[in-house]
Design brief:
With 142 residues, the chain is mostly beta strands. The protein has no helices and eleven strands. Strands 1-4-3-2-8-7 form a six-stranded antiparallel beta sheet, with no helix packed on it. It has a five-stranded antiparallel beta sheet with strand order 5-11-10-6-9, with no helix packed on it.
Amino acid sequence: MATNKVLERLATIDLPMPTGINIASGQPLLYGEVAPLPGVAVAAQNTSNPVYDSNSGYLGVDFEGVYNLTVVAETLASVSAGAAFKPGDKVYASGGTYDPVTGITYGFTLCNDTNGTFFGRIMQSLGAGLTATVAVILRNAC
């Protein structure tokens, strides 16, 4: 095995926290500007398990697995018949704020807008125009 390998799998890693932002545990994130990787914050400023070390300035982010996330069945921020989800459909991250210092994008909407970034796959049906918390398989786990 190569001696310069840093991580065995792209699972939970620590990334710098964007300055002045409160990222909650369980919040979906993207890492990187070009072909960003989807992830979910697992140890953030307002959590106690695991404890967030405010002195470190870092945020734990998980890039694998299935998470219950808020998904909106809309396309291009409008409701249409094509916005409904079936199990296994792709979910996209649309909008959000990119922090160039940390490479993290936050505050986006998970929806059926193919102009967004492929985030993962939904595990249940969701009718057009509805918003629900549903299980989403992160793209890196697909």
